[in-house]
Inverse folding.
């Protein structure tokens, strides 16, 4: 079962402090998932079924969404874009790299959705850049209000798994 494989690989226990200061006893480590080529492939294949039919570009959010969007692009044949939290300070100085997004229906891709704030910020950046964004995909949804926040701003969330789907799920997600 895919949920068990994801939990065995990516759910780790210990004391973890998140960027907002919240402390968890368990953490969803998306890098462990991304480092396992077969699991990443299988997750991307499963997530491909969640991609809306009218999607034109998949956009991964740094850093956790990048390996997922690359694998998902390979699974679906859709082009990928990559989003930084801030514009690059040198070279291209871009915040959005990869596929052209202007006027194209973009679907956001990330690893875990908690409050939804990061996805909403990214949706706004894409919208300002001229890309309609109405959908977001994630591997894991943690029930901390993200779905509601996104829906309030016209973005439907499509998770592969909810936290309750993971074996031993209490506190297992970042």
């Amino acid at each position: 079962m895919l949920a068990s494989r994801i939990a065995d690989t990516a759910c780790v226990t210990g004391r973890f402090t998140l960027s907002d200061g919240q402390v968890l006893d368990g953490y969803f480590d998306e890098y462990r998932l991304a480092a396992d080529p077969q699991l990443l492939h299988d997750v991307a294949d499963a997530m491909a079924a969640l991609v809306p039919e009218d999607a034109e570009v998949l956009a991964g959010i740094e850093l956790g969404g990048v390996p997922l969007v690359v694998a998902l692009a390979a699974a679906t044949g859709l082009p990928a874009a990559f989003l930084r939290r801030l514009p690059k300070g040198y070279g291209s100085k871009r915040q959005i790299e990869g596929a052209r997004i202007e006027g194209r229906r973009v679907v956001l891709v990330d690893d875990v959705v908690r409050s939804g704030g990061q996805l909403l910020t990214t949706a706004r950046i894409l919208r300002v850049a001229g890309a309609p964004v109405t959908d977001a995909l994630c591997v894991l949804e943690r029930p901390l209000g993200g779905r509601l926040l996104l829906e309030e701003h016209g973005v439907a969330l499509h998770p592969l798994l909810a936290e309750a789907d993971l074996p031993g799920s209490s506190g297992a997600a970042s």
